[in-house]
Amino acid sequence: MTQIGKTIQIFLPDGNPRGLRVAEITSRTVSAVQIPRSKLDQAALRAELSGVGVYLLFGSDAAKPRVYIGEAENCLSRLKQHNKQKDFWAQAIAFISKTQHFTKTHIKYLEWLCCDTAQRVNRFTLENGNTPSKPHVQESVEADLLDNFDSMQLLVSTLGYPVFDEIKKPDNAHLVFCKGKSADAEGEYSEEGLTVFKGSTCNLIGTPSLGNWAVSARAELVDSGTLSEQDGLLVFQEDHVFTSPSTAAVVVLARQANGWLEWKYKSGKTLDEVVRQSPR
Question: CA torsion 120→122→126→131, rounded to 10°?
């Protein structure tokens, strides 16, 4: 399916690309305000943040990023509370309506939909203690809110947090494989890096030359539940995105490895041959 182009405007209120950022799709009604935790004082100058909205708190983790999803009648006030009470987060993104104010029912529904989608997609660890229940809304209202959520999904991913983006296994022509000893992994190379799919297996014991960073990376994946020991192997319990093919290959093979050469297509060609050496 051909993707339809979108125009997204990102405004930097103070000209700092690492400061507050306001993102919006020009043809839609939802706006996203990204707020570094250290810039909450500056965020207080944004009048729209004192209104009703849905917000997400993001924190990094070595194995898997973390997110907390909430709703508030005053987003700024709630973020200030979380600044005192929650330690894990470094960035917040608040979603508000540009043309009409969300009602309490609207944001309750969007909060539920955000939590439900994030939990199902499972790309981030959801930090919410309790999952909100789905509120009842009229069919016409639900259709509008689903449209709002599509905008939220695109904006939050554009800002660098694909918390709602589902990972889908491609057809065999686009799958890559990494095998060695008992290891047998399937993956896909994309704009995000190298995704290793659930059910892939890794060698359990690392070689003596395996670096400390790799030992730590594998241990963190085990601690997070992404990898689990089964029958003398480490098995991926969920899809996992690595930032580079080589990191993925080292984790799978438990030895030093060049992922561009280790990951191969069904044809036998390496990732390097297909992606880096193919004529453009």
Answer: 10
User: In whole angstroms, what is the distance from residue 166 CA to residue 117 CA?
Assistant: 9
Strands 125-126 and 66-72: parallel
**Segment 182-224, tens digit of pLDDT:** 999 999 999 999 999 999 999 999 999 898 999 999 999 999 8
Number of other CB atoms surrounding residue 271 within 10 Å:
22
| Residues across the chain | 280
Q: Are 176 and 242 in contact (CB under 8 A)?
A: no
∠ CA 226-229-235, nearest 5°, is 50
Task: Specify the pTM.
Answer: 0.88
Domain ranges of the chain: 8-158, 172-276
Which residues are CB-contacts of 260 (< 8 A; sequence separation ≥ 6)?
245, 246, 270, 271, 272, 275, 276
Q: Say which amino acid occupies 184.
A: D
DSSP type of residue 47: G
Contact yes or no for 19/35 (Cβ under 8 A): no
Spatial CA neighbour of 54 closest among 64, 65, 68, 43: 68
